[in-house]
Every structure is written in structure tokens, then in C-alpha cells.
């Protein structure tokens, strides 16, 4: 069924859902959920829009039943972490390619798709300031590099003055190549950390505060210091830099502490963030999130 012109604003989110149908059904589900919610606000009264949105709702119901055992669908907090981590992995891949001066369609699409998935995070509530900045930067970079390559110009790497921030609405529709499935430039379950991601930096962002679950610079656009040392060699964490809070090790459940289902879900979330951080050898973020999970499980408080 063709997308009514009144709902043009969600066309790229729906295309992203279609591309991820088999690759990552969770991403496909939330892209469609965002599209449905946004479409309802755009136009839910005209017959063609209503018919399209009803069909989209039916599709969502079917997907929800098929994915009923997937905790990213059954638990919003886990779904939120899944989409955010996915979006920021794509952002970091594209940002690294950009700063290394490697301009190609995969990196443009990664910037662009990351911005769309950060839109999708709105289904879980308001975006954080960091994600608003990531979205703005990724969308601008995708358009800027796309237009440079189209005009035969060499783009400038990294954050530069964001002139001409108007988003090219036709980006992604030109030439057709952007709508085709492409090799994902981020780790899949069959790949080890860093495989298929170009030259993923291990230490470029160590000097910047990274929010839990995020593996991209918190204040992009910003000039980042060059990585020190050989990024291919494992860097040992300084002794004493990260110590486990002794109170957590000695914590005993005084009284009758009852953990709720939400407490267990939050603990799972922190463990997921820690696992994701370890993929990028980010020891600090991993320890921080494991400590949060441990504190929650031993005290019932965050």
C-alpha cells in the first residue's frame, strides 16, 4: 500500500523498518511503532491515511505476537536500551570513518540511519540532550557529505561550522541505492568486537564523559584529542583507577528487602550496558554499570 503524501515525514523510518525486517526485528518493530504514533499526529482523519495507519497497526500487532518472548518488546526499558545502543554504534562507526577521511555510501547511510533511530527513541519518552545533539549532528553530516560527493567536492572531516543546516528532504530517495539493503557496519552476533566496523577506535573518546549505554562522544560536535599510543594494542587500566565500592561488597540485606519486577528489569538493563561497554573495552563504563546493578540487588535502591 502506497504511503499517502500527508505522511511523507515517516517514509524513511518505514524504509528503515523494512530493511531491518530480518536483520533485527526489534529495530523494525520500534521503527513502525514510531511511524504509527507520528502518523496519527500528522493525519488520522482522511480516508487514505486512516486506511494506511490501520494496516500499520495490524502489522505491529502481528509482530508483537511473533516477538512475544523477546524482552526488548515485552519490557520497554530493555527495548529502549536496544535501540539506543544500536543507533549509537552506527553513529560511532560513521563518525570514525568521517574523522579518518573515509567518505562512502555506507558511512553516509550509517549517519542517516542513526538519526532516524534517535527519532525512534521518542516512543520511550523525551530524548536526552546528548541524543538530541547526536541526532542533529548525524542528520546534518549525512546531508553535508552526501551533497559534497554528489557535487564532486571533498568533504571536510569532523565537526566544522554547521552552515546550511536545512535537512535535504529528498536525501535517501535519490538514485535508489540508499534504500537497498547493505552490509551492516556494526558487530553482529557472528562477529567479534570491531569486526566489520572498519577501524573502530578503542581510546578516542576516553577523555569524554560517556553516558551509560552510549558509545559515542557525549558532546558531538566537538573537537576530540587524538588517540594516544597504538590503538591496536590493549591499554591496561591504571591501578586504582576503578575500585569497587567496599560498601557494596559488604552489603547485607538488612530487614526484609523485597525486589520488585521493575528492580530486576533495571538490574538487567545495567548488566546489558556493562556487556555492551566491554565490547569496546570500556572498563570504566562497565564497572560503573555493574556497581549500579550490584547496589540495586543488595539494597533495593539505586
UniProtKB/TrEMBL annotation:
<dbReference type="GO" id="GO:0015031">
    <property type="term" value="P:protein transport"/>
</dbReference>
<keyword id="KW-0472">Membrane</keyword>
<comment type="subunit">
    <text>Interacts with VPS4B. Interacts with CHMP1B. Interacts with CHMP2A; the interaction probably involves the open conformation of (polymerized) CHMP2A. Interacts with CHMP3. Interacts with CHMP5; the interaction involves soluble CHMP5. Interacts with IST1.</text>
</comment>
<comment type="similarity">
    <text>Belongs to the VTA1 family.</text>
</comment>
<keyword id="KW-0653">Protein transport</keyword>
<keyword id="KW-0963">Cytoplasm</keyword>
<feature type="region of interest" description="Disordered">
    <location>
        <begin position="173"/>
        <end position="247"/>
    </location>
</feature>
<dbReference type="InterPro" id="IPR041212">
    <property type="entry name" value="Vta1_C"/>
</dbReference>
<keyword id="KW-0967">Endosome</keyword>
<dbReference type="GO" id="GO:0010008">
    <property type="term" value="C:endosome membrane"/>
</dbReference>
<dbReference type="GO" id="GO:0005771">
    <property type="term" value="C:multivesicular body"/>
</dbReference>
<dbReference type="InterPro" id="IPR039431">
    <property type="entry name" value="Vta1/CALS_N"/>
</dbReference>
<feature type="domain" description="Vta1 C-terminal">
    <location>
        <begin position="262"/>
        <end position="298"/>
    </location>
</feature>
<keyword id="KW-0007">Acetylation</keyword>
<dbReference type="GO" id="GO:0032511">
    <property type="term" value="P:late endosome to vacuole transport via multivesicular body sorting pathway"/>
</dbReference>
<dbReference type="Pfam" id="PF04652">
    <property type="entry name" value="Vta1"/>
</dbReference>
<dbReference type="Pfam" id="PF18097">
    <property type="entry name" value="Vta1_C"/>
</dbReference>
<feature type="domain" description="Vta1/callose synthase N-terminal">
    <location>
        <begin position="10"/>
        <end position="151"/>
    </location>
</feature>
<dbReference type="InterPro" id="IPR023175">
    <property type="entry name" value="Vta1/CALS_N_sf"/>
</dbReference>
<protein>
    <recommendedName>
        <fullName>Vacuolar protein sorting-associated protein VTA1 homolog</fullName>
    </recommendedName>
</protein>
<keyword id="KW-0813">Transport</keyword>
<dbReference type="InterPro" id="IPR044538">
    <property type="entry name" value="Vta1-like"/>
</dbReference>
Amino acid at each position: 500500500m502506497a504511503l499517502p503524501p500527508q505522511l511523507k515525514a515517516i517514509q524513511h523510518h518505514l524504509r528503515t523498518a523494512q530493511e531491518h525486517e530480518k536483520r533485527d526485528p526489534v529495530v523494525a518493530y520500534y521503527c513502525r511503532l514510531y511511524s504509527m504514533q507520528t502518523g496519527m499526529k500528522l493525519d488520522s482523519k482522511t480516508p487514505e491515511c486512516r486506511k494506511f495507519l490501520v494496516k500499520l497497526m495490524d502489522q505491529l500487532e502481528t509482530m508483537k505476537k511473533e516477538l512475544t518472548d523477546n524482552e526488548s518488546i515485552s519490557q520497554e526499558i530493555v527495548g529502549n536500551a536496544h535501540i539506543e545502543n544500536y543507533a549509537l554504534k552506527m553513529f560511532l562507526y560513521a563518525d570514525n570513518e568521517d574523522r579518518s577521511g573515509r567518505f562512502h555510501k555506507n558511512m553516509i547511510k550509517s549517519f542517516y540511519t542513526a538519526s532516524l533511530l534517535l527519532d525512534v527513541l521518542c516512543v520511550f519518552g523525551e530524548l536526552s540532550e546528548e541524543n538530541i545533539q547526536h541526532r542533529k549532528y548525524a542528520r546534518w553530516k549525512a546531508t553535508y557529505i552526501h551533497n559534497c560527493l554528489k557535487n564532486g567536492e571533498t568533504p571536510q572531516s569532523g565537526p566544522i561550522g554547521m552552515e546550511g543546516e536545512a535537512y535535504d528532504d529528498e536525501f535517501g530517495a535519490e538514485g535508489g541505492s540508499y534504500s537497498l539493503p547493505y552490509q551492516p557496519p556494526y558487530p553482529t552476533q557472528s562477529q567479534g568486537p570491531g569486526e566489520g566496523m572498519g577501524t573502530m577506535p578503542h581510546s578516542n573518546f576516553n577523555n569524554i564523559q560517556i553516558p551509560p549505554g552510549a558509545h559515542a562522544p557525549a558532546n558531538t560536535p566537538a573537537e576530540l584529542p587524538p588517540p594516544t599510543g597504538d590503538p591496536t594494542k590493549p591499554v591496561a587500566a591504571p591501578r586504582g583507577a576503578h575500585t569497587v565500592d567496599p560498601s557494596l561488597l559488604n552489603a547485607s540485606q538488612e530487614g526484609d528487602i523485597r525486589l520488585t519486577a521493575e528492580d530486576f528489569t533495571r538490574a538487567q538493563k545495567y548488566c546489558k550496558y556493562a556487556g555492551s561497554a566491554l565490547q569496546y573495552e570500556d572498563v570504566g563504563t562497565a564497572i560503573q554499570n555493574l556497581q549500579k546493578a550490584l547496589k540495586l540487588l543488595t539494597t533495593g535502591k539505586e
